[in-house]
Amino acid sequence: MSKVQIKVNDNGSLRITGDVELLDGEGNVYTTKPSFSLCRCGLSNNKPFCDGSHKGKFESQVRVPKEE
């Protein structure tokens, strides 16, 4: 089994790739594809999924801290 990958996109969504189960707060299962994006900006009209509403309105470039 391969690892699930979650990529924090610059100025955008969280891209999820792999076999995962996405649940809401009550444990209900969302229908997903093998690869999908989750909203990180709060502007999507299709939460928790990204619909591209962030473009030009959200800035965030998260990086892994470098070890010394």
From TrEMBL:
InterPro entries found in the cross-reference section: FeS-contain_CDGSH-typ, MitoNEET_CISD
Domain Iron-binding zinc finger CDGSH type as annotated: residue spans: 15-60
Name used for this protein in its record: CDGSH-type Zn-finger protein
UniProt organism field: Neobacillus ginsengisoli
The UniProt record lists the keyword Transferase: no
Keyword set, alphabetical order: 2Fe-2S, Iron, Iron-sulfur, Metal-binding
Gene3D superfamilies linked: CDGSH iron-sulfur domain, mitoNEET-type
